[in-house]
Specification:
It contains seven helices and eight strands, in the order βββββαααββαβααα. The chain is of the alpha+beta class. Among the domains are: about 80 residues, Beta Barrel (OB fold (Dihydrolipoamide Acetyltransferase, E2P)); about 80 residues, no CATH class. A hairpin with a 3-residue loop joins β1 and β2. Bound molecules: zinc ion.
């Protein structure tokens, strides 16, 4: 295999040996891949800054026996401000880890790359990381084909109305009041949160709806995403714990 020059986000970095780093890179061109950055844990290494989690860089990679070897890297987005805000940094790491678990190796996904890059950029400055997380998880859900039904009852097909809305990931979306009485374990959403969710799905963007609605919606979005991903991903437990530490449940 010839060497390659790729744009990538560092999803994960682990120490390896004395001074090396083992990296999980999300490249725009080739999808997810594993690489080793030799000597990158030495503070004087030219690779030190470009091989940290959440950094976006252009990497020159040479094929090694098992992994790619980083031969050169130039930082495009250091996202240094991210780490000044603890909650934002933790949210960014969670987003990277979620994407890491979702991606198969060597399958490019430019839409997901752009979604993650945009989310990390936003987390550098936002005062509402929970809202960013909510929109990220919601966009991810739509992208993966798990959009919930929010307009009609998933059991009887009646249009949804009322002040509180019953929602159940296992049913694929909302339930009307009479069906909600028949089905145990529904989550209740305020009408505002439900309206914001529909708006978000229709337009992809809405203004920050306030802390309460943001948190309520984030929890519903997360439950829905989690329900679908738990069925597909083998080890999600640590990941969900990370998310729970961030937002609470
Ligand atoms: Zn119904």
């Amino acid at each position: 295999m010839p060497p390659v020059n790729v744009q990538a986000i560092v999803l994960r970095r682990r120490p390896l040996g004395e001074a090396d780093k083992s990296l999980t890179l999300f490249t725009r061109e080739m999808g997810k891949l594993s690489a080793v950055a030799r000597g990158a844990r030495k503070p004087t290494s030219k690779l030190a800054g470009s091989t940290e989690t959440c950094v976006q860089a252009r990497f020159h990679l040479a094929p090694g026996r098992t992994f790619w070897i980083v031969t050169q890297a130039s930082v495009e987005r250091a996202r240094a401000r991210l780490h000044r805000l603890l909650m934002n940094a933790a949210t960014a790491i969670y987003a990277c880890e979620l994407v890491d678990r979702l991606l198969e190796e060597n399958v490019p996904d430019e839409d997901l790359f752009d979604l993650l890059a945009g989310t990390l950029d936003e987390l550098e400055t936002t005062e509402h990381p929970t809202w960013t997380l909510c929109r990220f998880e919601n966009a991810l859900m739509i992208q993966q084909g798990y959009s919930p039904e929010l307009e009609t009852c998933t059991r009887c097909g009646k249009p949804i109305e009322g002040e509180t809305i019953a929602f159940l990931p296992q049913m694929g979306g909302t339930l009307c009041p009479s069906c909600a009485r028949m089905v145990p374990g529904t989550v209740r959403l305020s009408r505002t949160a439900w309206l914001v969710w529909r708006l978000l799905n229709a337009s992809g963007e809405t203004d920050f709806p306030g802390d309460e609605v943001s948190k309520e919606l984030e929890q519903a979005v997360h439950l829905h995403l989690r329900y679908h991903l738990d069925r597909e991903m083998k080890s999600t437990q640590v990941l969900w714990q990370l998310r729970q530490d961030l937002v609470g449940e």
